[in-house]
Amino acid sequence: MADGGLAHGTRVLLTLAAAVVVFAGVWFARDVLAPAAVAAVVVIIAHPVRFPLERRGWPSWLATTAVIVVAYLILAALAALLVVASAQFVAMLPDYADELQRTATEIAGWLESLGATDATASAAASALHPETLVPIAASIADAVLGFATAFFFVLAYVIFMAADASGFRRGGAAFGGGQGEGIAGRYFTGVRRYYVVNASFGAVVAVLDGLLLWALGVPAPVVWAILAFVTNFIPNIGFVIGVIPPAVLALVVGGWPLALVVVLAYSVINVVLQVLVQPKFVSDAVGLSLTLTFFSVVFWALVIGPIGAILCIPLTLLVRALLVEPDPGAGVLRRLSGVPPERERA
């Protein structure tokens, strides 16, 4: 306080209060900002397409068009996967209504034999009742329809962002030069590497999981393979989300032995690839601590909805790039967030 400034605790409280106001505003505007975030990530991934084309003499407008086409192909592939998976899931439920009902009754009886009350057993088993799952299937279909509506805004954002990215590049130092350009370059490179590596490993995991379920006779293996691919983009908890539906369906059609086989096989495949191998490829690019990664999944899903779980890494990296990395006095925060020591020294 000797220099007339605010005390450190006061500055921290003011910063936290401002953050609450900002993120509350993001929550209220999530229907607009979520599609913009999706478009921004897709453009970042597709943007390097322009460099070899411009080196070959392509005009800037034609290279920008190529970036837009690649971005649209990525979005079209994702939309096709979601539509196919949701349609098969909705169509599958009526065929297994009797099996679901029988399994729910068996689970209720088993829980009661363990000493659970009738209300507790009924509540636990009700999750498998067709009356519960059909509204869930309908809500999934509505969510896909809502995604299709937002998809129009994503397509428009992609055009504008791709054109702006070309203009920034022609304009020289778009981020202030020096440190700003370095931070921006690391951010864009990190986002691209993260999604390319996750898509590659997700495809491998999806194929292996799908073949496994097909060999075991679990219904709709394509749906669960697509789910495994999508949940691979959710750090830490994606595997748990991806294994629950096929394990439950295996329980319905094959009993506890088949369900346990599915869980164990999923665990082997996903733990080896996602826990032991994949982090070695993305740790240098992302540089986020495990605690912050897990927190970011929950936080961004709360702020902008389910898509926030998939976009949590680039959004967290963006906050760090804007608020933490440029501040020379935030070395402790950078290290706590997971910045590698070599980058900290740089």
TrEMBL record:
Record keywords: Cell membrane, Membrane, Transmembrane, Transmembrane helix, Transport
Compartments, record wording: Cell membrane
Bilayer topology term: Multi-pass membrane protein
UniProt entry tagged with the keyword Membrane: yes
Domain of life: Bacteria
Cellular component GO terms held in the UniProt record: plasma membrane
Membrane-crossing residue ranges in chain numbering: 12-29, 35-53, 65-91, 136-160, 195-216, 222-244, 256-277, 297-319
Family under the similarity heading: Belongs to the autoinducer-2 exporter (AI-2E) (TC 2.A.86) family.
Name this protein carries in UniProt: AI-2E family transporter
Organism encoding this protein: Agromyces mediolanus (Corynebacterium mediolanum)
Upper taxonomic lineage: Bacteria, Bacillati, Actinomycetota, Actinomycetes, Micrococcales
